[in-house]
């Protein structure tokens, strides 16, 4: 009949096969595979992974339609088995479905936990950690031996995150015998692993890959640890004399009973894990990609060191208050985030209702993958897209805050990253410190062309192989 007979016009896409749909087309680097496929099928593409419909978005114009024009329709997150067990029934911010509950949690995080005021209250902590970080390279500089820069940077961001959220460093073994970072990394892997149960609901109960079992065990480790952290805070009592850490802030909100929604220990635990997971890997991976590009582009490195010499001099360390004057640093960071967006597919979005976008029917409950990796390489908006050229941002107003859809390292709109300000401070501060204090050199006569740039896929994409470099101290004394 006329009423029901209107044929749906789905976005184009490659031909799928029964049952798997297009799952077999994804290899070890799904963002790169999807980039390649989109070159044939266009910036709004339909692909089915198992029984789950996915819309893959691969151009700035298309991203604007999904993240701005129709933001409200696409502001949810898909159900996700690993997230369910790891986030106290998806009670967290990152994986929370759109609704009043998520809106309240998001407001709390933005206003109370990640506000400018809160972030600046941790300034002296960051300074202290960075001082120790620089010191730790001096010995290797004297001996002229390589350091594992990737590991060092990831310890630094882990320590900063711990002190900000918990108020102190915990010993590695407080969490688990395996140590803090290993456990967080295992969690990120589990969350990113394509879980057959998510694509084929009837397989979920069978748990063929054992993911559910592993995830539940991991969730228990975090639960025990976070309970202990909260007990420690209760025991320490009100310490209004010193900067309140994030757990302090959340516990006083809980005790005041002033939150607009139910807010108990489960919510505090969920947010603790959110903040740790979201802040540790992202900043560290961004820094290691930036350093990799600087090594491959010695003239850019020299120019950045020159800027630092002019603004800071060679007699003291970079301070947070210097950052705003470091314009070239800003361009280097942007250019690296363009080529190496550490969350290349953002975090999947989920459509809350049927909607027509650009003439295509997008069914309710589709997963939306915005391919940041493809967008940063779109030849229609970037000239010479594969080349690292920070100067392309000279005199340009393009920034990374989600208003310019050709550059979306932090996403955009309702689900955009709420930690952007903190993330940018951390990344700029660590990079400037490394480049200001040291010259860096590849060991064993490896040439710059040989520096491998392979990616390890996950929600956060880091270098596949750690960056091993020899530092040479360059400040006066
Ligand atoms: C260089 C550092 C960082 C980068 C590149 C980054 C990038 C992103 C991206 C791409 C998203 C997903 C946006 C979307 O799905 O549309 C996101 C979400 C998120 N980020 Fe960040 N991020 C960084 C640092 C941080 C920090 C330091 C925090 C907090 C301490 C943070 C907290 C979050 C949270 C809570 C979400 C989930 C928001 C939601 O679902 O409503 N991020 N981030």
TrEMBL record:
Chief place where the protein resides: membrane
InterPro entries: Cyt_P450, Cyt_P450_CS, Cyt_P450_E_grp-I, Cyt_P450_sf
GO BP: terpenoid biosynthetic process
Cofactor(s) demanded: heme
Heme as UniProt keyword: yes
Cellular localization per UniProt: Membrane
Keywords: Heme, Iron, Membrane, Metal-binding, Monooxygenase, Oxidoreductase, Signal
Record-level Gene Ontology MF annotations: metal ion binding; oxidoreductase activity, acting on paired donors, with incorporation or reduction of molecular oxygen, reduced flavin or flavoprotein as one donor, and incorporation of one atom of oxygen
Membrane topology: Single-pass membrane protein
Pfam families in UniProt: p450
Residues where heme binds: 417
GO cellular component, one term: membrane
Family named by the database record: Belongs to the cytochrome P450 family.
Protein name stated in the entry: Cytochrome P450 71AU50-like
Organism: Salvia divinorum (Maria pastora)
């Amino acid at each position: 009949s006329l009423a029901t007979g209107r044929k749906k016009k789905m976005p184009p896409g490659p031909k799928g096969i029964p049952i798997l749909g297009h799952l077999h087309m994804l290899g070890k680097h799904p963002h790169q595979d999807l980039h390649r496929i989109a070159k044939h099928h266009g910036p709004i593409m339909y692909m089915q992974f198992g029984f789950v419909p996915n819309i893959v978005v691969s151009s700035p114009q298309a991203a604007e339609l999904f993240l701005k024009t129709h933001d409200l329709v696409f502001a949810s997150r898909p159900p996700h088995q690993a997230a369910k067990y790891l986030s106290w029934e998806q009670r967290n911010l990152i994986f929370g479905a759109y609704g009043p509950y998520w809106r309240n949690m998001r407001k709390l995080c933005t206003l109370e936990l990640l506000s400018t005021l809160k972030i600046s209250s941790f300034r002296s902590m960051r300074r202290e950690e960075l001082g120790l970080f620089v010191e730790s390279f001096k010995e290797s500089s004297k001996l002229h031996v390589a350091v594992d820069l990737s590991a060092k940077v990831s310890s630094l961001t882990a320590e900063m995150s711990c002190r900000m959220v918990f108020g102190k460093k915990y010993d590695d073994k407080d969490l688990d015998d395996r140590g803090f970072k290993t456990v967080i990394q295992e969690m990120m892997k589990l969350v990113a692993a394509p879980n057959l149960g998510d694509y084929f609901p009837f397989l979920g109960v069978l748990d063929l890959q054992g993911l559910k079992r592993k995830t539940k065990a991991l969730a228990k480790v975090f639960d025990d640890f976070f309970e202990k952290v909260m007990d420690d805070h209760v025991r320490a009592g009100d310490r209004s004399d010193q900067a309140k850490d994030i757990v302090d802030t959340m516990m006083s909100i809980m005790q005041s009973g002033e939150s607009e929604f139910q807010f108990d220990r489960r919510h505090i635990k969920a947010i603790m894990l959110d903040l740790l997971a979201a802040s540790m890997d992202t900043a560290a991976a961004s820094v290691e990609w930036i350093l990799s590009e600087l090594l491959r582009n010695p003239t850019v490195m020299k120019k950045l060191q020159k800027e630092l010499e002019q603004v800071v001099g060679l007699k003291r360390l970079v301070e947070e208050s210097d950052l705003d004057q470091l314009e070239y640093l800003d361009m280097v960071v942007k250019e690296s985030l363009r080529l190496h967006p550490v969350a290349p597919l953002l975090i999947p979005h989920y459509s809350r209702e049927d909607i027509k976008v650009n003439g295509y029917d997008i069914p309710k409950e589709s997963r939306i993958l915005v391919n940041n990796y493809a967008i940063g390489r779109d030849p229609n908006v970037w000239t010479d897209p594969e080349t690292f050229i920070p100067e392309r941002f000279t005199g340009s107003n393009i920034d990374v805050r989600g208003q310019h859809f050709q550059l979306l390292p932090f996403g955009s709109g309702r689900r955009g990253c709420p930690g952007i300000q903190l993330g940018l401070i951390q990344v700029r501060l660590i990079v400037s410190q490394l480049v200001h204090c040291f010259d860096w050199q590849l060991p064993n006569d490896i040439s710059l062309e040989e520096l491998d740039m392979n990616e390890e896929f996950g929600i956060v994409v880091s270098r596949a192989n750690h960056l091993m470099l020899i530092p040479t101290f360059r400040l006066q004394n």
